[in-house]
Amino acid sequence: MKKIVLYPNPKRDRGLIQTSAVEKLLNDSGEAECVIIEHGFSADETVSAMKGADMIITFGGDGTILHAARYAAKLDVPILGVNTGNKGFMAELEKADGGLIMKAVRGECAVERRMMLDTRVIRKGETVYEDFALNDVVIGGRARILHMTVKGDGKLITELAGDGVVIATPTGSTAYSMAAGGPIMEPSAENIIITPICAHQMSAKSFVLVPERVVEIQLLDEDNRNEFISSDGGEAFDLVCGDEVRIERSGHTTRLIRVTDVSFYEKVAKKLKK
After folding, report:
1. Quick one: 141 and 239 in the same domain?
2. Angle at CA 161, nearest 5°, toward 159 and 167?
3. Using CA atoms, how far apart are residues 12 and 20, in angstroms rounded to an integer?
4. Is 169's pLDDT higher than 90?
5. Would you say residue 173 has pLDDT above 90?
6. Catalytic residue among 28, 44, 54, 62
7. Residues of the domain holding 264
8. CB-based burial of residue 182 (10 Å sphere; 0-12 exposed, 13-18 middle, 19+ buried)?
9. DSSP 8-state secondary structure symbol assigned to residue 261
10. Which end of the chain is more exposed for a tag (fewer CB within 10 A), N or C?
11. What is the chain's mean pLDDT, rounded?
12. What are phi and psi of 268, to 5 degrees?
C-alpha cells in the first residue's frame, strides 16, 4: 500500500473540505494510506510525516507547493499540486479535477524535475545565511534605493540601482520575476534569471544565464539598515554593506507530478487572463 501525504493550506482549503474528500477517496480505494500534515506542525514533525512517502498532494496555491518543496526536495518525494488558490502556475490540478488523483496514485503520470537554487551570504569571510529555493531569491530594501554589483563567475554582469533584484529559476519565472518585467520561461528549462526590480537606469534588463554559473551580488550601500534577502518568500534576513551573496544551482531538485496533457503555454494563457 502506498503512503500519501496530504499537505493542505487551511486558508485556501477552508475547513479542509477538499483535503478530507481526497482522504476519503484514497482510503476507500484501498490503494493508499493517508497522512495529513496539519497546520502548526513543526519542521521535525513535517519531515517525519513525509519520510517514506510515495507522494505529497498539496491543497492551496503555488505558495503551498513552495512550502512543501522545502522538505520534499531533500527527501526526493514527488509533489502533486491541487490548486485551491488563485493563479496556481505550478499546480497540476484544479479542485474539479480531483478524480485524476487516482491516476497519479496508480502511476499513470509523468514526473518533472525542477531545478532549485542554493544561496549563501558571506560576511567577512564567514557564511552567515544559507537557504535554497524553487522559485526565487529576492534582495530588496525597505523604502530606499539599493546599489549593488552583479557578477557571474567573478565577471561583472551589471551594476544596479533600484528597489532590488530577483534571481529566479525557470519555475519562478512566472512569479516575482515576471511581475518585475522578467521573461517567462518553460519551467522544465535549466537557467538562472536575473531581473532588476524597479531599476533606476533605463539600461537595466533581465539576464538569462546558463545553470552552471555562480551569481555573486555585493551590496554597496554604507547605510545598511534596510536591505534584506529572502528565499521563496520566506523569512527575511538582514544584509549589511559588503555582504556577498552567492547563488548557484542546487544539488536538490523538486519533483512535480503531471497527470494531464495541458501544456505550460495553455496554462499561462489561462492564468494571465484571470
Report:
1. yes
2. 70
3. 14
4. yes
5. yes
6. 62
7. 2-109+259-272
8. buried
9. -
10. C
11. 92
12. -60, -45
